[in-house]
Amino acid sequence: MFGRKKQKTVSSNLKRVNHTPSIISEDVRLTGTLVSQGEVQLDGRIDGDIKVEHLVIGSAGVVEGIVEAKSVIVKGKVIGSINASEVKVQSGAHVHGDVFHDTLSIDAGAVIEGSLKQRFEKEEPELISKELKPAKEVKALLKEDGSDLSFVNKQAADKS
Asked: Which of 101, 26, 42 is nearest to 34 (CA)?
């Protein structure tokens, strides 16, 4: 009767419900970690790490921390590393840290102080044929058509 109403607990899973970008304006300074599953337009300052889907750092925007995203457009300043699939550093931007990327574009007039490292997905070579031929068959093929082999390859074939 006089008890408190039960408060609903908010789940820690952030689910994207609309496609409106989150905007952090010039007069906002945020300290801590920013996490979003959508797009973030940063015109203010963030002292901390950012983990978002898409990030646009405006010309007045400053990030001091690690940026992780699918795509990042930098027009302002980043002090820290960027790890993203697609990175665009536009004219007038300053990046002081390493950039890990799949694709990278840098406009004239942009400043990057740090290393640029392309991320590589681990690719496993595919076998042309799953059946391995016995060494005798390979030697027979080499002897039949030895004209295509270089001198070094002929010597290697003769030794085996």
From this structure: 42
Short-list 92, 91, 93, CA closest to 82: 93
Count of CA atoms in the C-beta half-sphere (13 A) of 4: 3
Contact of 154 with 146, CB cutoff 8 Å = yes
Report d(CA 98, CA 96) in Å as an integer. 7
CA dist 42 and 38 (Å) reads 13
Model pTM score: 0.65
Beta partners for residue 51, in sequence order: 35, 68
**For the segment 13-54, what is each residue's pLDDT rounded down to a tens digit?**
555 556 788 999 999 999 999 999 999 999 999 999 999 999
Q: Where are the domains of the chain?
A: 22-118, 130-160
Residue 62, strand partner residues: 45, 77
